[in-house]
Amino acid sequence: MLTRNRPSWYKPDNGLAARMVLTMFLLGAVYVGFVAALYLAFPNLGFFPFLLIAVAIAAIQFFFSDKIALASMGAKEVSEAEAPDLHAMIARLAAQANLPKPRIAIIQTNLPNAFATGRSKNDAVVAVTTGAMQELPPQELEAVLAHELTHIINRDMLVMTVATFFSMVISLIVQNMFWFGGGFGGGYGRRNGNDDSGGGIIIAILASLIAYVASFFLIRTLSRYRELAADRGAALITGAPQNLASALIRIDGIIHGQGGVPIPTKDFRQAEAVNALFIVPALKGDEVASLFSTHPSTEERVERLNEMQRQMEQAHYNG
């Protein structure tokens, strides 16, 4: 979390913190329950190969996520000489947040957005689109960048990698059963000397379905909580919650056709790979239902930020 001294107006959202902890606990419970059910169905099922594959996938995601994300968006890392104003703004914000200055990349697209990625505070990158740099006033761009820096501070890449790790294991186990086991009963049931593995098949199918659906929703719930936490962090770093609120409204309006800025369809297709990383989802599909979204609604985020603004003004008035 943020380490600088918190101003008097800042009130920690203990409810949000508790919900994040509860979500992580429930995720763990889902995975433990899945393993227990699978063991009851197939006591001789070997998990080691699947675990190795999942570890390899998680390692690739963890160590190369920044390169993958930047490449998918065609982002180009820029030096201080190439983007002096952007470097100066991020350097100032990083200093306020007691954070090492991250690498900086620019994405050539009219889509106004930004994202942060990287496995640690010392190996992070903040990517900003030209659309954000052109359409957002300096104070709003600063608030957006502070939001992304908070993701780095909170180690959200690590948190989400851990959260999704066992869901990959579940997927690999289930796929192996269907593709290489001759159906669920093809190999695993006979290892127990019992050709009739119908009960095991039913248990495994139900456990897999429940684990997948539960982890799907819990991981997205956790992602939404991380976004709210990053909003609060941005407000703390800048001391101006209203700037992020207005930036969110502006970006949301432009993305969804209310800002008068034409955005090529190819830019939306390109953004699909990193949609969950953006400060505002670029694809409308994420907003079909709040339970399926990786982000809270813009309305909820703006309401929370406006409440923080009121707290700040009240503290200033009382002081």
Can you summarize the main beta sheet? 4 strands, mixed
Work out the helix count.
11
Based on helices, strands and strand pairing, what is the structural class? alpha+beta
The tally of beta strands, per DSSP, is 4
Would you list the SSEs in sequence order as H and E? HHEHEEEHHHHHHHH
Overall outline:
globular
End-to-end gap = 26 Å
Explain this structure to me?
Helix content is 65%, strand content 7%. The model is unreliable at 180-193 (pLDDT under 50). The chain is an alpha+beta fold and 319 residues long. The chain has a 4-stranded mixed β-sheet with strand order 1-2-4-3, with helices on both faces. It has helices at residues 14-41, 48-73, 84-96, 130-135, 138-153, 156-180, 184-191, 198-238, 241-255, 265-271, 298-318, and strands spanning 76-77, 103-107, 114-120, 123-129. The chain contains 11 helices and 4 strands; from the N terminus they run H-H-E-H-E-E-E-H-H-H-H-H-H-H-H. The chain has one domain.
Structure summary:
With 319 residues, the chain is α+β, with helices and mostly antiparallel strands. The chain has helices at 14-41, 48-73, 84-96, 130-135, 138-153, 156-180, 184-191, 198-238, 241-255, 265-271, 298-318; strands spanning 76-77, 103-107, 114-120, 123-129. The protein has 11 helices and 4 strands; from the N terminus they run H-H-E-H-E-E-E-H-H-H-H-H-H-H-H.
